[in-house]
Amino acid sequence: MRILKTFGENGAAGLAAIRELEQRGATNTAKVDGVVRGILEDVRGRGDEAVRQYSARFDGLGDADALLVSREEMLEAWEGTSEELKAAMRLAQANIRAFAEKQLPRAWSFRPAEGMEVGQIVRPLSSVGCYVPGGRYPLPSTLLMTVTPAQVAGVERIVVCSPKPVRETMAAAYLAGVTEFYRIGGAQAVGAMAYGTATIGPVDKIVGPGNIYVTAAKIAVSQETGIDMPAGPTEIVVTSESGDPEGIAADLVAQAEHDPETLAVLITTKQELAEAVALEVKRQAIGNAIAQESVAARGFCFVTETVEAARELTNRLAPEHLTVDAGSDLRWVKNAGSVFVGHHSPQSMGDYISGPNHVLPTGRNGRMRGGLSVLDFVKVITVQQYTLDALREVGPHTIALAEAEGLKGHAESVRVRMR
User: Fold this and answer.
1) Residue 26: what pLDDT?
2) In this structure, are 187 and 138 located in the same domain?
3) Residue 13 CB neighbour total at 10 angstroms
4) Do 20 and 40 lie in a common domain?
5) Could you say which of 246, 321, 393, 405 is catalytic?
6) What are residue 93's phi and psi, to 5 degrees?
């Protein structure tokens, strides 16, 4: 990891690095956009035939392999899973469900004036597609993280797509009660969920992380199908004045092993802490090739002049994962996907067990939204109702505004009902 000061005569390099990090997007899909759009158009035109062709080419799908994973296969996977892992999955599912239930918005209404009632009703999406990666690291935890809040929201049809699903992913699907699970991935899976094929019906929204091809495909179909967010490489920032170097380094290495392009950052005013963490990261990353590559390319320890500067820099970076020293730090946190407080809150707990979702905004999208939640699976529909007396009282104000804008039809639609 590079140790860079952000102040003084040696601060120029640190400030230049920060400016570069601020320009990052969730992911740069330009280099694959052409290929992805070709796949999507092919899937739109040829449906299952194209899906099978690309799945055979990229994921080794056999001619005799059914696209749909049967419930019998999921049951067999569940029965072949260790009791220890079953217990972990059940706990994760329960915590994710409990958290989503707390997040679920409620219907309400109130009367700003007598005879005038306004409010909202909440309705689930009709169908969603959950993309579960199956590449470098199969992620059964992502299946639970995407399917469970959709179930809490009341979504009737939940589709899961995952290439080359391993036993653990199929076991998680069985636990979650998934009935539509397709052994496909990549841009072809996104296309199938967005446009529909003879086998796979289209969905209203696609959620879940994926590689650059999946991300590019989600962006491309987003004009026709809802998506949660573009997902880029994992990001971690630890902002600390008093943290333990071993624990901080462990979190940095843990997130760095996700992807060679992971952003791993420590922000502190303590030069000695930065040096200790850098040494610990080097030691703990031994034998972990992906983490070593990641921290060498995008690992930074920024040493700021003041605590206030460290906090400002943290919010400027708007990281996916953020660790801070104490609960009092939450007062200054403005931009982050998920926050972990204190030495005994390793970020890996959030990846699996805590309940808050691990599908989180990257590329500074933490300035604009939080992580995946039950809110991604519902619609808030507003409602308004007037009595004649209320309309006669409030309507003239609407008429005045409509006529000021030159919209005579708007004014008349109120006037005719006030008679």
Assistant:
1) 60
2) yes
3) 12
4) no
5) 321
6) -60, -45
Name the band, by pLDDT with cuts 50, 70 and 90, for residue 28.
confident
Give how far Cα 232 sits from Cα of 29, 72, 147, 333, 361, Å: 10, 35, 21, 22, 8
Which amino acid, residue 279? Answer: L
Q: Is the pTM of this model over 0.90?
A: yes
**Packed helices 83-103 and 167-176: angle between N→C axes, nearest 10 degrees:** 50
Task: Identify the bridge partners of residue 180 per DSSP, sorted by sequence position.
Answer: 159
Name which of 102, 181, 101, 98 is nearest 140 in CA terms: 181
User: How many domains does the chain divide into?
Assistant: 3
Looking up residue 237, the CATH number of its domain turns out to be 3.40.50.1980
User: What is the per-residue pLDDT across 126-148, written as a single tens digit (0 to 9) for each?
Assistant: 999 999 999 777 889 999 999 99
302 backbone φψ class: left, alpha, beta (φ>0; ψ -120 to 50): beta
Tell me, yes or no, whether 39 and 15 share the same domain: no
Q: Is the pLDDT of residue 219 over 90?
A: yes
41 and 188 co-located in one domain = yes
**Which domain covers residue 115, as residue numbers?**
30-227
Q: What is the pLDDT of residue 136?
A: 78
Q: Is residue 364 part of a domain?
A: no
Arithmetic mean of pLDDT over the chain: 96
Torsion angle (degrees, nearest 10) of CA 16, 279, 237, 4: -20
Q: Which of 320, 358, 405, 410 is catalytic?
A: 320
Mean pLDDT of 255-264: 94
Active site residue 320: yes
| 13 and 59 housed in the same domain | no
Task: Answer yes or no: are the C-beta atoms of 231 and 26 closer than 8 Å.
Answer: yes
The reply to whether 141 and 242 lie within a common domain is no
**Mean predicted confidence (pLDDT) in 6-35:** 90
- In a domain? residue 259: yes
Residue with the two structure tokens 């092919």: 42
Phi and psi at 320, nearest 5°, equal -65, -55
Final residue of a structural domain among 227, 261, 291: 227
Query: Which candidate, 173, 139, 141, 137, places its Cα nearest to that of 158?
Result: 173
Read off the pLDDT of residues 260-293 as tens digits, 9 standing for 90 and up: 999 999 999 999 999 999 999 999 999 999 999 9
Given a cut of 90, whether residue 6 has pLDDT beyond it is yes
C-alpha span between 100 and 235 (Å, rounded): 24
The count of other CB atoms within 10 Å of the CB of residue 58 is: 18
> Given its phi and psi angles, is residue 78 left (phi above 0), alpha (psi -120 to 50 degrees) or beta?
alpha
* Pairwise CA distance, residues 180 & 199, whole Å: 10
